[in-house]
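Input/output pair, single chain:
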Amino acid sequence: MWRPGFDYEEQSPAQVHGYHRSLCIFSHVHRGTPEKPGLVLGLDLGGTCHGLAFRVSPVNRDATLLYLREREQVTAVYVEKWVMAELDDGRKVRAVAYVVDATHPQYAGRLPHHDLLRLVQQGHGMSGANVDYIRATFDHLVAAGIEDPDLAALVAELG
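Output:
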């Protein structure tokens, strides 16, 4: 969300029903290693996720999807799904989302808070420190006016 990595024509606050944001994926590449995994966010079943939707030019659609598949499907822990997103202005649009595959070995599920803290503190992968990913995500959510109490509590403990 804070580093889309592709050109877009519009960014809009949005919500998707049926999924929630969760630190539920052991990161073995970007924010950790198999020996010392970190944790990254995924869309997990249940609830509602408040975030951002990006509108891409039709000319860039295929290239954007290819880019996202290469970035998000490194270990196939996500399933690409078309979901309905409700924008803040009331429009409902189809959007691509990457939903966690709960049968994948990297699926962490709902972990106790002390395990979240430990894994985030230890994680470091090819995209950097897990702590930096958590802080950047939280800061971006705050800037977008999106509340995430679980992430806020974790960031407060990270200092």
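DSSP finds four helices and six strands in the chain. The CA atoms of residues 11 and 54 lie 5 Å apart.
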